[in-house]
User: Fold these one by one.
Assistant:
Number 1:
Amino acid sequence: MSINDILSVQGMLPFLLDKDAAGNITVHSSLESTNKTAKELAITGAENGTIVIADCQTAGKGRYGRSFFSPPGHGIYMSFVLRPLQRHWVGSPTLVTTYAAVSVCEAIEATTDKMPQIKWVNDIFLDGKKICGILTEAVTDIESGKMQWIVVGIGINFITPNAGFPEEIKNIAGSIFSEGKPTITRNKLAAEIINRMLVFESQWGSKPILAEYKKRLMMIGKRVVITGLNETFEATAIDIDDIGRLIVKKDNGEIISLSAGEVSLGK
């Protein structure tokens, strides 16, 4: 890692379209979890657009409570606090995850020659390996039933550790720059993601965003295995709907829309 690639607000500032956004960014050398810190800030009133970034996480987590490998100097770990009620938009956590996935892909495409793909709903893949996971957590207002705040966590493997990835994930984990020296800094990529995430309200629920998501999906038209709370079954992925749910056709001909569950490519 170059000395110039130490994550910092000052390092991101030249690449931020909205310079005022820098005032809402905090960068930490180490955190237990950026999502945990962002949720604590949301509970205490942090404003929409608050961003927490860490060089490493000691207890990073993914979906279903899984751990997320987050070593120092090798990745970007960031969480956004979003307030739907405050900003007068309505949506679903699935759509937020959809938007975040597109934002990450577009940021990588804009700054490198890489072309990542999306595995529904929250993973970014490159050359067949997972390089990014997204974890969206929301709290709903009891009276209105609408989302009070959302925390979107984005964990990116920027470069591969010298010792490689841990045994349990080495066959599926990859990085943006798996070989050779990075052509950009982590600060630039983080800023590019921030630029896209902070304008999402103007794009919210738009068909172009869903189209961008769909064209990067790696499973449309393919056999998939769906693991839910009560069952595991195979189906064919055929589309996504207007709120980001995956539409699949079961072997008995039934067509269903999935808003949750673990989806993997079939054999």
Number 2:
Amino acid sequence: MPVRWRRVKGAQVMECLSFAPRNIADSLVGREKALQIWRELADHPSFFAAAVEADPPIASHRLVGFGAGCFARPAFTDEVLSAPRPGIHDRFIASCPSADSAVLNRAELAHLNAGPGVDVIQLYGSVAESLPMPQLMEASMALGAAFYELTRGYRLRVVYAEVFCNYGKQYARNVGATLVEFPETDSLLSYGTRETAERNPGSAAALFVQYTEPVLALREADQELLLAALDGATDEELGPMLGLSLSTVKARWRSLLARIENAKPGWNAHDGNGDGRGPQRRHRVLAYFRKHPEELRPYDRNMASRKAAG
């Protein structure tokens, strides 16, 4: 059973929420309000989500897993870790309509990513536990791989979640997360910090905190183009998506290739393709950014400069 994950945004996120209704976290605001908040989060720059799908479907079900996370304000994270108690996701969701929302805006995300690091709350993570064990493990691994890829390139400070399902609890134990049991419920707090991961370089958690500083200083518009292209959009599809003509899209590829070559001369000399044209150029640019996702993340260069200056 081939199982694959794919990034989802917008309406696709809303379609996936029915997979595990308990994870909607609506106890404080009610279901209708919670769904409205999820709808707003689904296209937020601090939000990410992945669907895990089976092909062919199992018992008519193609969706076999769904996960979602968000970059949280440090104050919310620090409160969670200093005084752990159940209802973490519900409090996060309830905060969103207020001025004190626990969700980072893009400027805050860029500032922290260039400085002390960003915090990730895993708001939703579930696979179909009715699957036979081999398929359950495959779906679980796909969900873990999705989280890794969607956060790769960020300077992570803390990753945490309130975990309900058995597979999630076992996964947290397997990766060496710190666990805090909530005896009055069937949930627990699972979290890991960069400091803990760095003290255990051979652990699975250490993979999540590897980080490289970006060097290309890409514009947000270029990052949007690249992310859409990495998701499979063609040049003809990118134009309408981004409000650009096809000739402008092609000019962006030329500009991006030149930017890479200026920053890293000879980076692609081994492929023997020279400057390349059309699809060759696009392929080589995308291959570079698959290896360097840090270039696609919000990053405040002024903050980085102040940090480097001490």
Number 3:
Amino acid sequence: MVRRVSTIHFIGGEKGGVGKSVVARLLAQYCIDTELPFVALDADGSNGTLLRYYRDYSRPVDLQRFESADEILLLASEEPNRRVVVDLPAQAERALWTWIGESGVLQMASELGVQVVFWHVMGEGKESLLALERLLSHPAEGVRYCVVRNFGRGKDFSLFDKSEARQLLEQRGATVIDLADLHGPAMQKIDRFDASFWAAAHNPLVGAESITRMERQRIGIWLRGAYEQIGQLGTSL
């Protein structure tokens, strides 16, 4: 029998406001709806988005404390076929790579049969591209990448599409997916009621007097589209 490896998903983008936490929530919801075993770790001490929306599946992690950050790898290694979804805050690069480098995380993950996927959520601006270039400058052996072009944070990604970073991603076998823009008022209502994406789309008791039937339909269509994109990761999930 072939042992199915566990996977650590680092959901980042370095720059604030590009939609990292939305993508982390989507991945958590995807795991729930497709019945994939997972645990979510929220590294954003100021916002705690996963702890807010998916509290039954989430726990905090502090990247500044190695004994706390070590839980990421421990959780991935203790159970086969588990996904560990880590929602990274803005400006987490230094703390994350200090822990990875000084603890030999990538080497240990390889020895334990744990797959590591770095997600980079980006808007259309140059800052997102520069952050991606910094990510790609770190050790890459044995890791995989998923870049999310978030159309809720821009419409023109030609700067990225024509970049050397895009070419390097292709050489490394990365996955590039698109996240469609969800109508602003619908997302605002989801946030107002602290609702999971599934509940906002399908549970009429959530925001009963606020979220309209058409908005629930719109959220459901957006969610299915996001799932199709996430599914492109294939074995990287």
Number 4:
Amino acid sequence: MAISPRGILRCCILTFVLSLVAGCASTKIVNQWTEPDYIARPFKKIVVLGISKETTLRRSFEDEFVAQLRSNGIEAVPSYQLMPEEGQAAEARLLKAVKQTGADAAIMTRLVRIERRTQVTPGYYNPYPFHGFYGWYSSGWAGFYEPPRVYNYDVYTSETSLYDLSRDRMVWAGTVQTTDPGDIPKEMKNYVKTVIDALKEKHLLRSAPQ
């Protein structure tokens, strides 16, 4: 069964729109800062702090960060093992818990905002194929118009920072944008990898010699 030119065009447009939707999910660092006078050194252990009122999300995020740090040869511990309670910890509680781990650095991530954005693909007019002068003239009376396609998606902006506990100073901060995170576990892995890669590129993340 032959497919008409109109049917072929509809398929092409649908494929294009689906590719846009599928390709939107992404995580990237849009801004970062590094302490200019800081001389990096290997850390013995890093405590991971996920700032979220959703306990499950916090634990999953901290576990993913710990797993990827350890795969890079860096010892790490999730904060929920030290402070399982929800909400902000008191100063004395936090300092005591971190000190017990022997960590000399901390990584903290917090969600800054969520934005709803809209993407519009323009409409398209396509005349039918024509032959000769009259065919060309007739095509002006035929053809069809595909209306614009509207796609709404969310952009999550988060901030991750690295704190040197032994020197009591924040040494790196990055603003990270995640677009349309439909598959949360997958995007969580991408987020953590993006941050770790950035820290390694700045030579701020190295495993301590055994």
